[in-house]
Amino acid sequence: MIILETLLSFIATFGFGVIFNIHGKNLLFASIGGAISWFVYALSLKFALSVPASMFIAAVAFSIYSEILARKLKTPVTTLVITALIPLVPGSGMYYTMYQVVTGDVDKALELGLNTLASAGSLALGVIFVSTITRRYYSVKLKLKNKKKLEN
């Protein structure tokens, strides 16, 4: 079942990539990022992790993929990150939260809203975590390279 869901995530991400005007091999690699994000998320859920924890792990995975690939393809990281994020966006959580508000079940709406917020926050934290580490790594690498040039 995870393989089918991963394939469908690839197709959905491909469609969004077309809408976002991504072309050529970048579209293919962006779609693979979406498939990776869903695969890691579904696999994390199989290991009985919570939804927010699974979202965080998936965000870290697709962010690492995007950071590495963006440098190889010489394309902006955001192009790859945003498309890889598409399968994990908690849109249904917002829908059901609003539905519960409209039907008057405030307790259920609050529960769903907090879960949705936790999921969205986990995605954001995962992306920020990898982005920060990557920027720091390349900053230190550049400083060492410049220092070595000055010594020669």
UniProtKB/TrEMBL annotation:
Annotated InterPro entries: ThrE_2 (IPR024528), ThrE_Dicarb/AminoAcid_Exp (IPR050539)
Any GO CC annotation of this UniProt entry: plasma membrane
Location within or outside the cell: Cell membrane
Bilayer-spanning residue ranges: 7-24, 36-65, 77-97, 117-138
One Pfam family per UniProt: ThrE_2
Membrane topology note: Multi-pass membrane protein
Record key words, sorted: Cell inner membrane, Cell membrane, Membrane, Transmembrane, Transmembrane helix
UniProt GO BP: succinate transport
Residue ranges of every copy of the Threonine/Serine exporter ThrE domain listed in the record: 6-133
Family: Belongs to the ThrE exporter (TC 2.A.79) family.
Protein name in UniProt: Threonine/Serine exporter ThrE domain-containing protein
